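From: lab user (bench 3)
To: helpdesk
Subject: output format question, protein + 1,3-dihydroxyacetonephosphate

Hello, I'm new to running complex predictions and I'm not sure whether the block I got back is the full result or only part of it. Here's what I submitted:
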Amino acid sequence: MTPGIRPLVAGNWKMNGTSSALAELAAIAEGFSGGPEANVDALICVPATLLSRASNTLGSGMVKAGGQDCHAKESGAHTGDVSSEMLKDAGAAYVIVGHSERRTDHAETDDVVRSKAVAAWRAGLVAIICFGETEAERRAGKTLEVLSRQIAGSIPNDATAENTIVAYEPVWAIGSGLTPSVADVAEAHAHIRSELKKVMAGQAAKTRILYGGSVKPANAKELMAVENVDGALVGGASLKASDFLGIAEAYRTL
Ligand SMILES: O=C(CO)COP(=O)(O)O
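Helpdesk reply: Thanks, we reran it on our side. This is the complete output you should expect:
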């Protein structure tokens, strides 16, 4: 937590969910209203195929819909890609860029990620820019160095606390059930805050820094209580309304 920053719990459904998953989304919206919404914002980033129906399901409630990636260009000959304008048109308010699965599966570089963040803003979306070290980098003691490089390379200079959220996701913690220690999370997030100052100047102090990687209801309170952790980016546990809401509920007693 950071005093003065309203936290965000964001779900990333990844390549999961067809029409039948909309019932789970409706359950998230219902459970969130009148409860966790007092303390925390919520977002679910669904597959592009579900975005329009997801945003209809969520309506004008407190849980927002987002995309998981966008192309840097607005339109054109890019078969299979989706632009930020298309996501916005389908009801997105946010888009994740630079997720480690995109960096690995699609060889996305920091330069590509930065251009996608600019594309997100062009369409009026908030960019959630992700970075994090691999297991080998952590073992080699390079975590902070990798974070510095990814932050310098992936975050455009004119990022603000309104148009940008950053997410620290150690690659080895994603989907593994493993999480860094509270001390390691605190060290990484403090480092991220200070590196953000180099690219975002005064905006850095107000920018939300999410933690992602095996966040569950059972560990949410401990992780979300860490200084400079301003919410969570949740994969597997966001697919079940009870788990996602359990994570958001952690803010009730923080
Ligand atoms: O990659 C993640 C969210 O973007 C984290 O995934 P898990 O919560 O399944 O570890």
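A quick orientation on your result: The radius of gyration is 17 Å. Let us know if anything else is unclear.
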